[in-house]
TrEMBL record:
Record-linked Gene3D superfamilies: MoaB/Mog-like domain, MoeA, C-terminal, domain IV, Molybdopterin biosynthesis moea protein, domain 2, Molybdopterin biosynthesis moea protein, domain 3
EC number: 2.10.1.1
Listed pathway(s): Cofactor biosynthesis; molybdopterin biosynthesis
Keyword Magnesium applies: yes
Native species: Rothia koreensis
Obligatory cofactor(s): Mg(2+)
InterPro entries in the record: MoaB/Mog-like_dom_sf (IPR036425), MoaB/Mog_dom (IPR001453), MoeA-like (IPR038987), MoeA_C_domain_IV (IPR005111), MoeA_C_domain_IV_sf (IPR036688), MoeA_linker/N (IPR005110), MoeA_linker/N_sf (IPR036135)
Lineage, top ranks: Bacteria, Bacillati, Actinomycetota, Actinomycetes, Micrococcales
Function: Catalyzes the insertion of molybdate into adenylated molybdopterin with the concomitant release of AMP.
GO molecular function: metal ion binding; molybdopterin molybdotransferase activity
Name of the protein described by the UniProt record: Molybdopterin molybdenumtransferase
Length: 469
């Protein structure tokens, strides 16, 4: 993994925040850093920081930043995703503390180990239809009366044994009596007194409508693999096999801070102001990808306030919006370049979203420094946060889908990858209008972000797309 390592010996990681899940950004004063306590199991990096595996201990800050910029100029978008996934996986494995969860609480979590069936499936011989279990050719003599009223009894467990020429009434899912050779469906049978016959149009076929023990899977078969995100269909299978408790990886905790003195969180913005376009939906997106939002706040554009908050942020993943540019007021960039023990990228060869910072903070915390422009921040979040979560939780790398491009897109003037909001029309991706870095109308209309290579793409060319669902 080609990454840049920078900084001094890492700082012990303060501990977890309590009582802030779901907190409003309005509830946390920007001047008050959120407390964190040490986690005993944290693996802290020791020793000197590096750029490109070169020691830079003792370099002046100006020389360190010069070397850092030379080592991280516009890294390829795909390479950054791959390196972030690898780094997140390394951190996730080092901090892995599986939790035993009740099955009903495990939906949406990630399995920490394979789950195997404690029973064969099905675990007993049963009838696939209402009717009669029979042995030998017909006609058959009923040796048991049908149950007329079950009350609270489980009549599906009622069973016995039959011999050749005998029949036993069964329901769908009932235990088959010993000696059963087949089932005659009730709608295919004629019963007179104690005699059962197959109707002429539905001759009896031995072995029909019987559910055999273990025909779906044997005891010990893998139900779900490690790293599986448990959805409703997985939970249904686990419940059917008698699983009550699953071992799941704990969610990735996320600390979020939204910077910018010009940002307001309500009302119509005046000249020189912009509305907050992040705090309402970013937490929901992250939860949908498997995160646990441990804290979120708004910060003034104050160097010391931002640095202090980053130092104390408790999340496994720290996300900041704004301040990632190169001006004297872009404090997030200055602070992350100084604090990170490892840098995956300080710039990415992608538009929108190129001034995005990706790295590792002391205490084995990942950090994403997102741009302040709203479309750029969204494309960076969609492109990078699911990758970090997947790596940390041991899931497979999020896959891109493909679609046919609906019109020509010229080469990039900056020779970078373009993430273009597109509407999907069946399998055709049609680029939207309103896609400059400060615009959101194109994103609001889009279904995917088309990944356009630097050389551009032509109408009818199949391209990769980043889903927005």
């Amino acid at each position: 993994m080609a990454t840049a390592h920078v900084g001094s010996a890492s700082r012990p990681r303060p501990g977890s925040l309590h009582g802030t899940r779901g907190i409003s950004v309005r509830d946390v004063p920007a001047q008050t850093p959120l407390p964190r306590g040490r986690r005993a199991s944290d693996r802290l990096e020791q020793g000197h920081r590096h750029v490109g595996r070169r020691r830079i201990a003792g370099l002046r800050r100006r020389d360190r930043r010069t070397l850092l910029r030379e080592s991280n100029v516009r890294r390829d978008w795909t390479t950054v995703r791959e390196d972030l996934y690898e780094l997140a996986g390394e951190i996730g494995r080092s901090l892995d503390r599986p939790e035993n969860l009740r099955l009903e609480d495990a939906l949406g979590t990630t399995t920490s180990a394979p789950i195997v069936s404690p029973i064969p499936v099905p675990h007993f011989e049963s009838s696939a239809m209402d009717g009669y279990a029979v042995a030998g050719p017909g006609p058959w003599r009923l040796v048991s009366d049908p149950v007329r009223s079950s009350g609270e009894r489980n009549i599906h467990r009622r069973s016995g044994s039959i011999g050749v020429g005998e029949a036993w009434p069964v329901l769908t899912g009932s235990v088959l009596p010993q000696g059963t050779e087949g089932v005659v469906r009730i709608e295919h049978a004629e019963t007179r007194g104690t005699t059962v016959r197959s109707l002429p149009d539905h001759p009896y076929n031995p072995g029909r409508d019987m559910r055999r023990r273990g025909e779906e899977m044997e005891r010990g078969a893998e139900l779900v693999a490690a790293g599986t995100v448990l959805g409703p269909r997985h939970v249904a299978l686990l419940a059917a096999c008698g699983i009550d408790v699953v071992s799941a990886r704990r969610p990735m905790s996320v600390s979020m801070a939204f910077t910018g003195n010009e940002v307001i969180d309500s009302g119509v913005p005046q000249p020189g102001e912009v509305r907050d376009a992040f705090s309402a939906q970013f937490p929901h997106l992250l939860r949908g990808w498997g995160a646990d939002i441990s804290e979120r706040t708004r910060l003034h554009d104050d160097h010391d306030v931002i640095r202090e908050w980053i130092s104390w942020a408790s999340g496994d993943l720290v996300i900041l919006t704004g301040g990632s540019g190169s001006s004297s007021q872009d404090f997030v960039r200055q602070i992350l370049e100084d604090m990170c023990t490892e840098l995956v990228a300080t710039s990415i060869a992608v538009r929108p979203g190129h001034p995005t910072i990706v790295g590792r903070l002391p205490g084995d915390r990942l950090v994403l420094g997102l741009p302040g422009n709203p479309l750029a921040a969204h494309t960076s979040l969609y492109g990078l946060a699911p990758v970090a979560l997947a790596g940390f939780l041991g899931r497979t790398m999020p896959r891109l889908r493909t679609a046919v491009l609906g019109r020509d897109v010229p080469p990039s003037r900056k020779a970078v990858t373009t993430l273009a909001p597109c509407v999907l029309d069946d399998d055709v991706a049609r680029p939207c209008a309103g896609t400059r870095s400060h615009m959101l109308s194109g994103l609001a209309a889009a279904d995917v972000l088309a990944v356009i290579p630097p050389e551009g793409a032509t109408d009818g060319q199949r391209i990769d797309c980043l889903p927005l669902d």
